[in-house]
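Below is the record:
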Amino acid sequence: MSLPADLGPTLVGVLVLAVIATAVLAAFRIPGLWAPVVAILRGAVQLAVISVILTGVITSPVWIAVALVVMLAIATSVATGRVGWSGRAALMMGSSITAGVLVATTAVFATGALELTTRYALAIGAIVIGNAMSIATLTGRMFTTAIADHWGEVEGWLALGATPRTSTLQLARRAVRDALVPAIDQTKTTGLVVLPGAFVGAIFGGISPIEAGRFQIVVLAAIMAAGAITSVLVATWMGPVRTKPAQPA
């Protein structure tokens, strides 16, 4: 498999962007300033590997299913690490993300919004899993932070005889709302501020703008559905709090 002719300029451009990100964070003395560089390097390696793998398996339903399961497992691992590793946290993130993804993608293919093919299954599955992971992470961290910041209120509810879940219910609802803000903003500004990668990629791949737009709105709706389910489930899992949690790192 030959390498693309413009690989050199691509590597230079990515390197320059990584240096810019690091320099800005260093100038403001942000902790963990190397995180963007590490993320870019990991992303580059992972994309290179998955590109090679998918070249040979993209028409195989079995291997596509395996790829999606691996993506779910990795998404669960990443989201769990963001809220603190434990068996319960892994089960919470895994079940919440999986439920959101399964319900959303089942609705997409069951209604005929997209044809059930290996390419569509991989494309929409990967996009929805990634967004559900981000929303699960945001929900967990926002809920934990809200509880820590408003612990006096929670203790007040508990002192009045409220159950642990009832005492944190409003904070859980706020965490769900705030975790969905990025997805909501992206959806409502699509075409005005945002041209999503799936839309642009489809057009570059030769699909008509109308067909690309149809695919993109289905993807955005699936993200919203999966995100809502995932976020509510994470907040429900985390709801009963009896002791003040540590602030997420």
Notes: The mean pLDDT is 86. The radius of gyration is 20 Å. The longest helix spans residues 118-149. Residues 32 and 131 are 23 Å apart (CA to CA).
